[in-house]
Amino acid sequence: xxxxxxxxxxxxxxxxxxxxxxxxxxxxxxxxxxxxxxxxxxxxxxxxxxxxxxxxxxxxxxxxxxxxxxxxxxxxxxxxxxxxxxxxxxxxxxxxxxxxxxxxxxxxxxxxxxxxxxxxxxxxxxxxxxxxxxxxxxxxxxxxxxxxxxxxxxxxxxxxxxxxxxxxxxxxxxxxxxxxxxxxxxxxxxxxxxxxxxxxxxxxxxxxxxxxxxxxxxxxxxxxxxxxxxxxxxxxxxxxxxxxxxxxxxxxxxxxxxxxxxxxxxxxxxxxxxxxxxxxxxxxxxxxxxxxxxxxxxxxxxxxxxxxxxxxxxxxxxxxxxxxxxxxxxxxxxxxxxxxxxxxxxxxxxxxxxxxxxxxxxxxxxxxxxxxxxxxxxxxxxxxxxxxxxxxxxxxxxxxxxxxxxxxxxxxxxxxxxxxxxxxxxxxxxxxxxxxxxxxxxxxxxxxxxxxxxxxxxxxxxxxxxxxxxxxxxxxxxxxxxxxxxxxxxxxxx
Length: 494
Prior knowledge:
Blueprint: E1 3-8, H1 10-19, H2 26-39, E2 43-48, H3 49-59, H4 63-73, E3 79-84, H5 96-109, E4 111-117, H6 123-136, E5 140-146, H7 155-166, E6 173-178, H8 185-196, E7 204-208, H9 215-224, E8 229-232, H10 246-255, E9 259-260, H11 264-281, H12 295-298, H13 302-314, H14 321-334, H15 344-357, H16 367-373, H17 386-393, H18 396-402, H19 410-415, H20 423-431, H21 434-443, H22 455-465, E10 472-477, E11 480-485, E12 492-493
Parallel strand pairs: 1-2, 1-8, 1-9, 2-3, 3-4, 4-5, 5-6, 6-7, 7-8
Antiparallel strand pairs: 10-11, 11-12
């Protein structure tokens, strides 16, 4: 039986799957970082370019600063970034020199491991990315084999992709990525050996979401078949549409005779911290999922599903969630069954959202779907439905996009901004709205400390401050007393 190691996904994929990627800010992450460093994870699934954009847009925090601070606080555990093709933050394709600068900045700020994923399984593009990473800093690279269900994506397809990357000296590892939790134990028994057979000894990892309750079984099969690195989440950030919880996974592995290498005391502290944070901030705990055959059809991963539900709720349309999911299945089929991994779940779900909430299907079409139809993301797996294709190609916006440059080049982007900008700020401004970057800069450095036990009190004080003027407020509980007075006298605490 093998020694098993874990990659933790709580901060990035767990947060994205269960908390819409908006549940954790820099101070909440830093507070637990030294403990995380002691657990002994193989790596931390820490961020992505989309996750970096969330830091700017929702928290007004510098994502580069977040990476630097986490690397300093967690020096013994590699920070991992997942990247999809030649793009950074926006869906716009960029040239190789732009991505070369992106990778250089990421590595010098503290990213030590890159997951390289091409949404079309274009192995040439993936290998080009791996080569740039190695040339710019030599961080560890891992190629993604993204699992999905279609007549095309059989074991032979994945084995052929694995054989291509196995030949490259620029790819260190490979992993089977199951973002929608569609993998079954029966399929794992054939897929894993087919892939391992062609890897020439390169390590293979597995990343399987809990969406329909099968991932724990898949992990036991994976360990039995020789995969010794599994991706898990901690405490409230596991289960649900996230990945298997570390505690239960460890117990299951040991029951099957495997040894799992972790500092259990640090893992308990980490679990307790995120549980307290979830309670303090009113964030949901992931719950074990039951089998749901509908997921085999729409194949929407956890993070995108959570975001879609949140967007509907913000519009008072949460009751339309099931209708949107049904429409996702129809839209995906009409678009040639794209694999449901970034950016395609976002594109498909956005179109389904517009179709359900609008007055007519495909009346409102997002720019990224137009670019998909125009081939800007590569060749669709199957042809686009002719009627849908005609509808999209006839839109005035389609004609406008056809006149746009096919990609953003580093040289063109440089012309738009002063040479005095740091590379890091330049990259954010090149792909994000200027007002969002301005707001981030105006906010200043991120706070460094967070205590979930103080959060209820801070919420109370915040609520009091927002009330009409009050001369005096007294708060007493056991041995604690807080007295707040008007401006003419100082606040006292005891």
